[in-house]
Amino acid sequence: MAATATIDTAPDPAGESPLQHPLESSLSTGRSWRNRLASAWMIASLIVAAIPLLAVLGILVVKGFSLVASLDWWSKPIPSNVASNALGGQEAQEAFGNVGTAAPVKEVIYGMQPAIVGTLITTGLAALLSIPLGIAAAVYLNEYGGKSRSATIIRFFTDVMTGVPSVVMGIFIYTVWVLNFEASGRSGLAGGLALACLMLPVVVRSTEEMLRLVPDSLRQASAALGTPRWKTTTKVVLPAAMPGITSGAMLAIARAAGETAPILFTVGVVSSTNFSLFGQNTTLSAQIFSNATQPGGESIAWGAALTLIVIVMAFTLTARFVSSKFSVRVDG
Amino acid sequence: MTDLSLRPITVDDLAGDRNGARPDTLFRAGAKGAGYLVLVILAAIAVSTTVKAWPAFRAEGFGYFFRDDWVPSQGRFGARSIIYGTLVVSAIGLVVAVPLSLGIALFITELAPRRLRSSITTVMDVLASVPSVVFGLWGFLILRPHLKDFYNSVADAVSGIPVLRSIFGPSLSGQSFMTAGVIVGLMIVPIITSIVREVFQTVPINEKNGALALGATRWEMIQGVVFPHSTGGIVGAVMLGLGRAMGETIAVALVIGASPQITANLFGQGEAMPSVIARNLNEASGTYQSALIGLGVGLFVLTILINISARVLVRRVDAATRGAS
What we know:
- The complex is a heterodimer.
- By secondary structure, chain A is mostly helical.
- Chain A has helices at residues 2-8, 29-68, 71-75, 82-96, 113-145, 149-162, 166-181, 188-213, 216-224, 229-257, 261-264, 284-292, 298-331.
- Chain A has 2 domains: 27-68; 115-331, MetI-like fold, CATH 1.10.3720.
- Chain A contains 13 helices and no strands.
- In chain A, α5 (113-145) runs antiparallel to α10 (229-257).
- Chain A is globular.
- Chain A starts with a helix and ends with a helix.
- Chain B has 13 helices and 2 strands.
- Chain B has a single domain (52-324), classed as MetI-like (MetI-like fold), CATH 1.10.3720.10.
- Chain B is 75% helix and 1% strand.
- Chain B starts with 10 loop residues before the first helix and ends with a helix.
- A two-stranded antiparallel ribbon of chain B has the order 1-2.
- Chain B has helices at residues 11-14, 22-60, 63-66, 80-111, 114-129, 132-157, 162-167, 177-201, 205-213, 218-247, 250-255, 273-280, 286-324; strands at residues 70-71, 76-77.
- The radius of gyration of chain B is 25 Å and the shape is globular.
- Chain B is an all-alpha fold.
- The chains are: A mainly alpha, B mainly alpha.
């Protein structure tokens, strides 16, 4: 045993754990079984968490693909006659006792353009507001604030703010904006504000992490040329951290695009496309929520969900791609 | 990706300004202002929601939190059953999420070959990015009918056993505390996993190797070295997950059943704070409106408290490991 042990005293420091414990043979059965059980638990956890993910993604494609693949989906208004159609030609007609004489049920044209546009408008506005502000706040925290008291407090509460539920952000904008402007309160603008509140702390913290990775030698080299601090920050530090900042911002956008709770009270409802920031609007997430429980709305909800997930995944995976590029550069 | 890379910088780019320090002061002030904006928004949330909720707090007094009769049509707003629903759903969520998250985090840090790690992290990122409403839709349309049958067969099986009988009772529609809790649990797995993983990575490699060298199995090493080092961080991560679970809105709104009640039956329908707000705030007015906003205030205060204590715990772990290295 001593001989085997000396072979094993230097496991790979990189953390490459061998799957088989080298002392397995000399272990008591209880110990080796507990070890195997623990490994099984780790692998099972991953599988258990991945199954619902695959199930959701799979069912979205199955149920939503035919709608999303049509051109109408991207160009037509949201149909309003879905519910009456589902109650059906049959039930409604039987209820009125005039089977056969009732007007033929109009064919439903499934469109989702208003919600797609609304999602892009609200998320886009939120990104325009929160990303510059978030980067500015992160610049303060990392380049100026450092370990000062005010920076520590801001950093702490930014962390805390990331944990504030999205529904609270919705209520916030509802109380300060929608209730104050009554009729014109609900708009893409109000929705964008709510999403911006949600994104801001995420952007601040991810940007600060990236700024921290920028080597000080770059700042010093720039300062040695007599460059003022603001120019060092905008021309040296921010460009160096840009891929990481981009990736963090895109993750924040992905999260905001999928949010429903802040949208519900702030955006209102429309069934035709509204390209303006003002006036009521609608988003994919709101359409999923309202159609999920509505008779006959299921297929619309599935289609909207697939569209939304495609948008969200595009942002998430691009973000990961960008950040993997960045980590290579830090090593080099 | 070349446009994102470091552009060669010329000396002209970095030349100092003739008018000295003024732009710098302005730049600094602007950045600082953006930093303070976070504090301003948090304060504004607290003030504006409390002001709007005040009529309900005044009308109901302490009964708002301690009575169970939530009957908007009669103007009675006792939120206890709704708060109960939030707590039960979050508790189920944690019971589901904590073992899964710890398992996945250990898998990534201790078991997985290096090249698998980044793809598992991607899977977690993708899981984290699935919107709440999509999980809700799946739970409502696909899972609910199956769960109803499953719940009822469990209820039949335990109908003779005293305590279990009341915890696992019959299910009306498949919408229940349990359905909501399981979905919420699934949604907080990526959050807890990512923090716990970072905490596990701060465990000193020498101590791990030392344990293995003494003949410990991997599991004994995890118990003896990894867990004791990470206790604070794990608790912090779990509390962050709890905060997220309590605020989870849309998925819960779709699968909890919308009937406020205090029951031990986890398969029964209930109601949670965020979901009652999401479903009703748009149509509510008067005291009902401020009662709903009041629930939002309660949720805000609860999650802020949980987050502050969680962050303090995680911070302390950070500080401790930084001191050690």
